[in-house]
């Protein structure tokens, strides 16, 4: 069945389903590029920053972070390292508050994905119901087995196209939405891990400064 025939068979709900599918594809592409950029660079940048900071090269660590401010973990580290002689508690709070500020960026578009996943099957079901209503409205009881009944049968089969289309859009979006949710949870774990390492290094540095 050609695309144009699918739209005719599915009825009016095929247009919002098309809009949902195009929106989902656009947002999925944006998220894929976002996560590729993070996963390809983040580990090497963080390891180098921690190495520089461990060797007391604070300026070098700050320069490296400034060069990678498009990474969430770099912005989190900068929020703490740019403070002027904070206490360990202030340093930890700066890391935590900036990490919280980065969460909406990491979870971006998740609500839209959830809306598409929920509404697409319902729109497909609505298309089926509307198709059945139209089919039975054209049914002539006195013409059972005739041309009208054949048309009703064809209308019922065509109405199911909208349900199938809605399910396809929802399943496709759900697959990527769950993938992005897993990446988000993994990113939070890494932020906590790397942030804890930086906090430990700062505490040691702060204690050495206090012993002098």
Give me some keywords for this one:
single chain, 212 residues, mainly alpha, 85% helix, rod-shaped
Layout of helices and strands, plus pairs?
Elements: H1 3-10, H2 14-54, H3 58-66, H4 72-81, H5 88-106, H6 110-137, H7 147-211
Count of spatially separate domains: 1
What class do helices, strands and sheet pairing give? mainly alpha
How many DSSP-defined strands? 0
* Fraction of residues in helix: over 70%
Question: Percent of residues in beta strands?
Answer: under 5%
Rg over alpha carbons: 28 Å
What's the total helix number?
7
Order of helices and strands: HHHHHHH
Separation, N- and C-terminal Cα atoms:
80 Å
| 3D shape | rod-shaped
The largest β sheet comes out as: none
Q: On the 0-100 scale, what is the average pLDDT?
A: 87
Low-confidence stretches: none
Brief summary of the model shown:
The protein is mainly alpha-helical and 212 residues long. The protein has helices spanning 3-10, 14-54, 58-66, 72-81, 88-106, 110-137, 147-211.
Structural overview:
It is found in: Cell membrane; Membrane. The protein has helices spanning 3-10, 14-54, 58-66, 72-81, 88-106, 110-137, 147-211. By secondary structure, it is mainly α. The chain has one domain. It is rod-shaped and about 90 Å long.
